[in-house]
Write a structure and sequence with these properties.
single chain, about 230 residues, alpha+beta, Arc Repressor Mutant, subunit A, 6-stranded antiparallel beta sheet
Length: about 230
């Protein structure tokens, strides 16, 4: 089924930017010229196409110059392996490999009663206390990943996780709050990861959930064991 016209225009302009047809640092042609090139589309349709490119950080508006083409943003390969520091794949190191500056910022830590779904995931009683921690990962001060973790109260900051009990990776529409924090348009897609971690004693110690901008982050699963033949 053919896509919406503004998506087709954004796709074409994106390809021309990535190929160098429209070089970084230079303005795109005036909107009237571009609209004429795409069959005289309306201003509303063209504005939606520009919003997509701005969300992808491929263009930005500069006063008296118009829409300026940006360098194609680097994509960070984020490992989902467990590490003793619980740093969700050594974000800063992953960013260095991608040639960008990355940082993980702690945004909150507080004890709270476990909601039923949290209690079920951690094999604890509903209303047992967990430690709720939130962090934000950035690339050059641009938020690209949000993480929230629910820890068993007695193991927080004491027993590092050693294995993943289960993990689910999917794509979803960002919530209003997620879109605002990641500076995405409403209705944007994000990558979503949910997983339960355990310690050496086999206890489920943490439930992690994160959402990431799929235009800046790729999730990498490495060093996975092969399943032995039946």
């Amino acid at each position: 089924m053919p896509g919406k016209r503004y998506e087709e225009i954004a796709d074409d302009l994106r390809e021309k930017i990535r190929s160098g047809f429209y070089p970084p640092g230079e303005p795109l042609p005036h909107s009237e010229l571009l609209r004429a090139q795409y069959g005289g589309v309306g201003q509303g349709t063209f504005t939606k196409a520009m919003e997509i490119l701005k969300d992808e950080q491929l263009v930005r508006r500069v006063a008296n110059r118009g829409m300026i083409v940006q360098e194609v943003p680097a994509i960070v390969d984020l490992s989902l392996r467990i590490s003793p520091a619980d740093d969700f794949g050594l974000w800063e190191a992953a960013c260095r490999r991608a040639g960008v500056d990355g940082l993980v910022v702690l945004t909150g830590v507080r004890p709270e009663p476990a909601e039923p779904d949290i209690a079920h995931a951690l094999n604890i009683a509903a209303s047992d206390t967990v430690v709720y921690r939130t962090r934000r990962a950035t690339i050059a001060d641009q938020p690209v990943l949000l993480e929230e973790t629910y820890w068993l109260y007695e193991t927080f900051d004491e027993t590092p996780p050693v294995a993943v009990v289960w993990q689910r990776t999917s794509a979803k529409i960002a919530s209003t709050e997620e879109a605002a924090q990641l500076k995405l348009s409403q209705g944007s897609w994000v990558l979503a990861v949910e997983r339960v971690l355990r310690d050496e004693a086999g206890r489920r110690t943490a439930l992690q959930r994160c959402v990431a901008n799929p235009l800046r982050v790729q999730l990498l699963e490495e060093d996975l064991p092969l399943t032995p033949p039946a």
